[in-house]
Amino acid sequence: MSSPGHSRHLVVCHQDLQGSNVLKAKREPWLAIDPKPIVGEPAFDAASLLRDRRWSIDRRIIQRRLDLLAAELDLERDRMQGWGLVHALHWGVGPNKIEPELVECARLLAA
Asked: Which residues are catalytic?
């Protein structure tokens, strides 16, 4: 896995784009809610889909999500994997919390 490093292509990212924050809408096909706006690269935003906890997470699921997102969004798989690790640790470990599912997601992404 390569280091996320710097990207020249920056966009406004949602930062919490996961299944429970995407709703079916009337004015558009989909509506992303509860953004935590930040400027970053597209692979950073796509990585939040790797840690979606609505389903159980195992190595096979993580690899499949990486493959699908890389192909459908034309993003570098290694960059998404690196950002996915960052996402999982950021959202899963804090001064007063440890979320085992996200720590496991980070472990799978680091392997």
From this structure: 16
Overall number of domains in the chain: 1
If you average pLDDT over every residue of the chain, what do you get?
88
- From CA 88, how far away is CA 61, in angstroms rounded? 15
Range of the domain at 28: 11-110
Residue 3 lies in a domain: no
Least Cα distance to 80 among 41, 54, 107 occurs for: 41
Q: Is residue 54 part of a domain?
A: yes
Contact call for residues 51 and 84 (beta carbons, < 8 A): yes
Task: Report yes or no on 74 lying in a domain.
Answer: yes
Helices (H), the chain: 42-46, 59-73, 77-92, 100-110
> Which of 21-35, 53-67, 94-108 has the least mean pLDDT?
53-67
What's phi and psi for 52, nearest 5 deg? -55, 120
